[in-house]
What we know:
Layout: H1 4-26, E1 28-33, H2 38-43, E2 46-48, H3 50-59, E3 64-68, H4 71-80, E4 85-87, H5 103-112, E5 117-121, H6 126-129, E6 134-136, H7 141-147, E7 154-157, H8 160-170, E8 175-176, H9 182-185, H10 189-198, E9 203-206, H11 212-215, E10 220-221, H12 224-233, E11 238-242, H13 247-254, E12 259-262, H14 277-286, H15 295-309, H16 311-318
Parallel strand pairs: 1-2, 1-3, 3-4, 5-6, 5-7, 7-8, 9-10, 9-11, 11-12
Residues 49-50, 95, 123, 137-139, 181, 209, 223-224 line the site of 1,3-dihydroxyacetonephosphate.
Amino acid sequence: MEAPQETKSSSAMMVEDRIARLKQERNAVILAHNYTHGDVQDIADFTGDSLGLSQKAASTNADIIVFCGVHFMAETAAILSPQKRVLMPDGNAGCPMANMVTPRELAEMKAEHPDAIVVTYVNSSAAIKAMSDVCCTSANALDIVRCIPEDRKILFVPDRNLGHYVARTLNRDIILWNGFCPTHERMLPEQVLAIKAEHPDALFVAHPECRPQVLDLADAVASTTGMLAYCAKSDAREFIIGTELGLLHRLKKDNPGKSFYLASPIADCPNMKLATLAKIRWCLEDLSGEVRVAEDIAKQARKPIERMLDVTLLEAFLKGE
Ligand code: 13P
Ligand code: SF4
């Protein structure tokens, strides 16, 4: 009788082979966020953070993009590449933070601050992006806000923690929306202090979606791809990781001689785990799970995303050109 482990890996290999064939037949590319399952990251053509994924989505020559991540990421890809089909292996993969701001609420806030520049984290719906002046990700939020003259008011939507980190780092007054990532919010400073006590030589690397009290304890704050780069470059051998647990897959794979400890074992984003190899295969078989954005919304939402990707467009906008 075959060992269960062998049976599992041979069926997984069959699924992987089928995905590889379908990808060729359909001229498809698979993009995966750093938080997805390890086996999904391993078969993806590109794995990265929100910024890297949006840049890839904008530049790929593929006809089909299979987006393994959450809904706002696939929407961003569809907005940037309207001529391509963007498929999600599981369309239920939403982002609770993105749902913490509605168009009506944002319209009310904009009416209260009519002169504010609306800087919107990409973790937001297309409808919210369409009402915004510029988008940002955790990788470029500081650079984007640095471009905005000191005398301009800023409304930062929807992540209060990333917004607070930007305000504090750049010493700027920023009006913060009261949204947050439930996964990162679960991480508490006392947990970090306890792990630091267990591993006194470890550096603590945190994502800016963490609470300010957690970021106060960090040796470095960066996006997920920034965290990967920091750990790869550092001479340290041990790291405490302050983000979603999916990042451990690449960290361990890229740095076999180094040790990584999660700041919180419950920093798990269930939505990021909805994409599986089986679902990727079926969406490629059936061309199902297409993400579409209404053309009028896409047209408006494209502007703040493009201003984020090309700073000269942002500068022209800020000059009123
Ligand atoms: P980055 O991909 O920008 O690191 O952000 C993490 C995240 O929460 C994505 O949903
Ligand atoms: Fe949203 Fe947080 Fe999950 Fe990222 S990790 S998709 S911000 S809930």
